[in-house]
Amino acid sequence: MRPALPIAIAGLVALTGAACPKGDKVNGPPRRSTELPLPRNGDIAVQEELDAARRAGTVAAYDLFIARNRRHPLAAVARRERARLLAPPR
Fold first, then answer.
1. What is the sign of the dihedral through the CA atoms of 48, 50, 56 and 61?
2. Has this prediction a pTM greater than 0.85?
3. Fewest Cβ atoms nearer than 10 Å: which of 1, 13, 48, 86?
4. 39-61: pLDDT as tens digits
């Protein structure tokens, strides 16, 4: 009775498709889920980080933003806003 067990397991594996992960001749290759969210736009994250620096209103917050996003176009905006913080009051 023991030899039937491996045969039964092999039959179950074949039925579940575990033995054929790349698809089969009837259904073709497995399809990707279309319910996955699209990747987030990196510019939105950078804008949110600049907004956080503005809310903090400190030179250190602007320094951190500039250090993390040195080549992003918003870094120039952050440098101007940081310079305004350092400028003496009129």
1. positive
2. no
3. 1
4. 889 999 999 999 999 999 999 99
